[in-house]
């Protein structure tokens, strides 16, 4: 079908008979990973053949990370072994280039409250402009993780709050070491 009539037909070209889960990328800063992130990663691992968790080395819109990329990758790697189809890698490039490099046809992200929507909508438009062939897919967070964020966890830890049940134990221990005042 010609491109202009394709645009009017309002549906994408069929992918052919070879539909399969394929590879998805779950990107983020993960500074540090929370049980909310791990819930999304695990759900993606159950839908896609392979999931590559992309850990942004130096996020552009955020202050310096608390944990370096190597440690953020290690926290996640030790939590995802049970899935068998999840790899964790740092990246320094555009997200869509990282996705392409791994043959991913989808970017999977979690959505919590409505407050996530505006930021994700912007990211979605940017990523779509750069790579219309890579679909962004959003999973609604489980209710118990709706208000869980890495920055909230860091704030709790900084003031001596209990972060168990929000992040894996090794992460909680490292948070305490880094943030006790
Ligand atoms: O909110 P997060 O976890 O810091 O999100 C990081 C990421 C990469 C998922 C988000 O910034 C995004 O979707 N960026 C798209 C634009 C891009 O490729 N930027 C370069 C990497 S920061």
How are the strands ordered across the major sheet?
3-2-1-4-5
Shape: elongated
Q: Major beta sheet, specifics?
A: 5 strands, parallel
Number of strands: 5
Q: Over all CA atoms, what is the radius of gyration? A: 18 Å
| CATH homologous superfamily grouping of the domain at 21-142 | HUPs
Content-based structural category: alpha/beta
Low-confidence stretches: none
User: Class of the domain at 21-142, according to the CATH hierarchy?
Assistant: Alpha Beta
CATH third-level topology of the domain at 21-142? Rossmann fold
Give the termini distance in whole angstroms.
Answer: 64 Å
The helix/strand order is HEHEHEHEHEHH
Helix content: 40-55%
Set down the secondary structure blueprint.
Blueprint: H1 3-9, E1 23-28, H2 35-45, E2 50-56, H3 69-80, E3 86-91, H4 95-101, E4 104-111, H5 115-130, E5 135-140, H6 150-158, H7 169-179
Parallel strand pairs: 1-2, 1-4, 2-3, 4-5
The structure holds 4'-phosphopantetheine.
Describe this protein's structure.
This protein has helices at residues 3-9, 35-45, 69-80, 95-101, 115-130, 150-158, 169-179; strands at residues 23-28, 50-56, 86-91, 104-111, 135-140. It has 181 residues and is of the alpha/beta class. The protein has a domain at 21-142: Rossmann fold (3-Layer(aba) Sandwich), CATH 3.40.50. Strands 3-2-1-4-5 form a five-stranded parallel β-sheet, sandwiched between helices. Strand 4, helix 5 and strand 5 (135-140) form a beta-alpha-beta unit. The radius of gyration is 18 Å and the shape is elongated. The structure holds 4'-phosphopantetheine (PNS). Residues 27-29, 56, 59-60, 94-95, 123, 126-127 line the site of 4'-phosphopantetheine (PNS).
């Amino acid at each position: 079908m010609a491109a202009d009539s394709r645009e009017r037909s309002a549906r994408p070209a069929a992918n052919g008979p070879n539909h399969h889960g394929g590879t998805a990328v779950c990107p983020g800063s993960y500074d540090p990973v929370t049980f909310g992130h791990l819930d999304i990663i695990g759900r993606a691992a159950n839908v896609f053949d392979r999931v590559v968790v992309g850990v942004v080395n130096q996020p552009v819109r955020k202050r310096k990370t608390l944990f370096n990329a190597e440690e953020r990758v290690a926290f996640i790697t030790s939590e995802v072994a049970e899935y068998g189809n999840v790899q964790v890698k740092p990246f320094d490039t555009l997200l869509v280039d990282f996705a392409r490099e791994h043959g991913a046809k989808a970017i999977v992200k979690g959505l919590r409250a409505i407050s996530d929507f505006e930021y994700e909508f912007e990211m979605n438009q940017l990523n779509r402009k750069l790579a219309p062939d890579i679909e962004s897919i959003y999973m609604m967070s489980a209710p118990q993780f709706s208000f869980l964020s890495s920055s909230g966890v860091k704030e709790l830890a900084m003031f001596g709050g209990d972060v168990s049940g929000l992040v894996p134990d090794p992460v909680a221990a490292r948070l305490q070491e880094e943030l006790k005042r």
